Amino acid sequence: MSALLQVEGLSKRYWRGDRDFSALDGISFSIAPGETLALVGPSGSGKSTVARILLRLVEPDAGSIRFNGEELLGLRGAALRATRTKLQMVFQDPLAAFNPRATVARLIDDPLRIHGIVGRADRPKAIAALLERVGLAAELASRRVHEISGGQRQRVAIARALATRPALIVLDEALSALDVLVRGDILNLLAELQRDEGVAYLFISHDLGAVRAVAHRIAIMDSGRIVEEGDAAAVIAAPASATGRALVAATPELPVFPRLPVFKETVS
Amino acid sequence: MKPLLELRGLGVCYNGAVAPALEGVDLDLAAGERLAIIGESGSGKSTLARAISGLLPQTARLQGTVAWPGLDHPARNGRDIGFVFQDPASSLDPVMSVGDQVAEVAHANLDIDWGAARRLAVELLDRVKLPEPEALARAYPHQLSGGQKQRVVIAAAIVACPKLLIADEATSALDTIVQAEIVALIRRFVAEDGMALLFVSHDIALAANLADRIAVFRHGRMVEMAATAELLARPRSDYSRALLAAHLGLKAHSGASR
C-alpha cells in the first residue's frame, strides 16, 4: 500500500544560548492510510518538533514530507490551506489552543466556514452531526469552552479536527492531561473513528501504556533520532534499543499479589 | 501506638464554592507508613494534602480536626512536613541558586549556621543523585531539566528530616522514564529515613507500587481505603474497580485493548 505520509531525512537545529543543538537529526518514517503510528520518547527527544513541522508551524532545515503524493514543504498560500484540511492536529491542552470565550458551535463552525466545507444554511446541522459523532449532546453547542469539562473539551477538539474530513490527525500528547476514566473513553472514540472513517493517526506520547492501546506501529525517539521502529506488540514485548527498554521498564504496572487467604466472604 | 497524624471529620469548603471540596474524612497515618491518595480531578485529593499541611487559602472553611498525636508540638512545614508539588519550576525561586534553596530550608529548621547548611545542601544534592553536586549547587533552576528540578525540590523537602513527606502528583509533569527515577528516589528516602509518605496521584498502578495502603477519593469523599494488596485483589467499590480497569499497562490483560 502506498504511504499517506512519507517523511525523509527531516532535520532541525535550534539555537539554545550560545550553542546550537539538533532537535531532529535526519528522521524518516511513513504512515499508511488508516494506520496509527506512535512516536514515543522521553522529554526533549524531538517528538513535538515532528508534529510542528508536519503542521508547517516550524520549517525544517532539511528533509522532505510527502503527503498524499504531494511535497508538503513546498506548498504556500492557497495550496497549503487546501492541504491542511486533510492534515489536522489535536493538542494536549485544548483550553490553551482555543479561544476561551468562543462557544463550542463557533469552534466547530470555524473550519467548516473557512475551508468552505459546508454552506451557511447547513452548518448548524453539520455541527450537531459532528458533536454527535464524538459523543457530545447537541445542546453543548451554545456553551463556552471554559464552561465544559476537560474531557468534553478534548472531544470538541476532535470534532473540530474531523470537520474538514482529514486523512491524518496528529495527536500530540492529546490524552496526557485527561483523567484516567476519560482517557479510556477518548481512546475508544479514536479507535471507532478510525474504523468508520479510515483516518490515520500520528500518536505522539511518552506513555507506552496508552500507545499500546491504540498504535499499530511504534517509532521510539531519543535525542532527535528514531532509535527503533516496528510492530507495536513486538516492540513492547522485546524492545531492541536502550531507550525502548527504559520506556518499557518505566511503565507502571499493577503489581500482582499472591492470592490472599479469604477468611470470610462478605456480600456488599 | 499513637498514629503520627489523625484526621477526624475533615471537611473543606472553598470560598464561593457550592459544594465542599472535601467532606467527612477520617484517617490515621502511622509513623513510617506509606499511604496513597488516589483520585481524578475534583476528587479532593490535593485539598486533603493542603489541609494537612495548612496550605489552604485563608478564605477556605475548615471542618473537623487535623491532629498530630505523634508529635509533641504543632506540625511545622519544612521541619515536620516536607512537600513536593507537581510543578518543580513553580516550587523553586528562579533567582536563587538551587544549593541556597536547599540550604535555606536546613538553616531555617535545623540549628545550624549558613556554612553548615550549605555543606548539608551539597550532601543532599548528591543524595538525590544530581551530577557534580558542588558545581550544581551554584546553578539556577532554569539551567536544570524538569527531572533535575524535581530532585532539588525533593532534596529541600527532606533536608530537615521531616516525619511526613507529602508528594502531590510529584511525577505527573515528568516523562515516564524520569517518573520511574523519581519514584525510586522517594521509595528509598522513605525507607532510609523512616518518613511517613502521603503519595497523592491519579495513577493507581504507580501508587500501588509504592504504598502500603491506598485511599480512593471521589467528589470530595473517601470512597474506599484498604491495604494495597487487598484493594487490588478485592476492590469493594465500583469506582475503584473502574479505576483499576482503566489502567493502561503493557501486559496483555491490562486496559482496553484494540
Automatic annotation (TrEMBL), chain A:
Cross-referenced Gene3D superfamilies: P-loop containing nucleotide triphosphate hydrolases
SUPFAM superfamilies assigned: P-loop containing nucleoside triphosphate hydrolases (SSF52540)
One of the GO BP terms on file: transmembrane transport
Domain ABC transporter: 5-248
One matching Pfam family: ABC_tran
Molecular function as annotated in GO: ATP binding; ATP hydrolysis activity
Stored InterPro entries: AAA+_ATPase (IPR003593), ABC_transp_ATP-bind (IPR050319), ABC_transporter-like_ATP-bd (IPR003439), ABC_transporter-like_CS (IPR017871), P-loop_NTPase (IPR027417)
CDD domains reported in the protein's UniProt record: ABC_NikE_OppD_transporters (cd03257)
Alphabetically ordered keywords of this record: ATP-binding, Nucleotide-binding, Transport
Source domain of life: Bacteria
Membership in a protein family: Belongs to the ABC transporter superfamily.
Name of protein: Peptide/nickel transport system ATP-binding protein
TrEMBL record, chain B:
UniProt entry keywords in alphabetical sequence: ATP-binding, Cell inner membrane, Cell membrane, Membrane, Nucleotide-binding, Translocase, Transport
GO molecular function: ATP binding; ATP hydrolysis activity
Entries under InterPro entries matching the protein: AAA+_ATPase (IPR003593), ABC_Ni/Peptide_Import (IPR050388), ABC_transporter-like_ATP-bd (IPR003439), ABC_transporter-like_CS (IPR017871), P-loop_NTPase (IPR027417)
Gene3D superfamilies: P-loop containing nucleotide triphosphate hydrolases (3.40.50.300)
Location within or outside the cell: Cell inner membrane
GO cellular component: plasma membrane
Predominant subcellular localization, coarse grouping: membrane
Family membership noted in the UniProt record: Belongs to the ABC transporter superfamily.
Stated name of the protein: ABC transporter family protein
Organism: Aminobacter aminovorans (Chelatobacter heintzii)
